[in-house]
Specification:
The chain has eleven helices and no strands. By secondary structure, it is mainly α. The protein has one domain.
């Protein structure tokens, strides 16, 4: 007799799918949710425009209004010092969208409806992070183009430029984990936005993003030197410019900070998602 293959849909319900099958389903569901989130931005182009407008304004303001009054010891002048800081800040500020979108979907019951569907439970959170990472990368590349238009130049080769963009993106993903946790834990978009302003603005401005730390008061320098935004932006600046900047030390410190953020906040985001209702 000839054996007849039984399709997966006709298999008994008590047969557990293999690990590979479950991973394949999770990836497929994640990509579906990612597409859903990206379609929202495509259908509302004003959202992308406003996401890009703020960092472009920062570039123009600091480059042409404040730049002449801020002395720096960097080849190429203040614009080369500024752009890695703007790009790092752009990656961090892009995570506001993650927290607000998750809070909105939680409040409207969208997350509950998605979780009730026959899909991987991880796909909702993973799809949000993948979509926001895509949006963040596009925004970073646009800001790099704006930087070139106002005089910024990479001087450490193509490899250094790519590595700087990758580091900025990973930094943004790490902050996305924090944003996802706050969005799901707080659950109100206005409160989430206010909370993000409270902790993210001081962290980015009290850093080496826009001015040399040596120009700050002594008591503030201690904080500015030992926080993740400074270490990541210093590493980005070293990758972009070279010229003897301490790449290895800055890169190791930034990797340590980013690893710590992922270890702490990724499980917190997953826990908040599981508890969300």
């Amino acid at each position: 007799m000839t054996a007849i293959a039984t399709p997966a849909s006709a298999m008994p319900a008590d047969i557990e799918p293999g690990l590979g099958t479950r991973i394949s389903w999770a990836v497929s569901d994640t990509l579906t949710i990612t597409r859903r989130n990206l379609l929202v931005w495509i259908r509302v182009p004003a959202y992308i425009v406003f996401t890009v407008v703020q960092p472009v304004m920062f570039v123009l303001l600091f480059r042409y209004v404040f730049g002449g009054a801020i002395p720096v010891q960097v080849q190429g002048g203040y614009v080369n010092f500024l752009m890695p800081g703007i790009i790092g800040q752009t990656a961090a500020f892009a995570t506001f969208g993650t927290a607000i979108a998750l809070a909105q979907e939680l409040k409207k019951g969208v997350i509950d409806r998605l979780r009730s569907m026959p899909m991987a439970r991880s796909a909702v959170l993973a799809g949000r992070l993948v979509a926001d990472t895509s949006r963040m990368l596009i925004t970073i590349l646009i800001i790099v183009g704006v930087g070139y238009a106002v005089g910024f130049r990479f001087s450490n080769g193509v490899g250094g430029a790519i590595a700087m963009v990758v580091l900025a993106t990973v930094f943004g993903i790490a902050i996305c984990c924090v944003a996802a946790w706050t969005g799901l834990a707080i659950g109100d978009e206005e409160s989430v936005q206010a909370f993000g302003m409270i902790w993210l603005f001081p962290l980015t401005f009290v850093s080496s993003a826009f001015v040399p730390i040596q120009s700050m008061p002594g008591w503030l320098q201690a904080f500015a030197k030992n926080q993740p935004v400074t270490n990541v932006i210093d590493a980005m600046r070293s990758l972009a410019l070279g010229h003897g900047l301490p790449l290895e030390t800055n890169l190791l410190k930034s990797i340590a900070w980013l690893g710590g953020i992922f270890i702490v906040f990724l499980p917190l985001a997953v826990r908040a998602y599981r508890r969300a209702s």
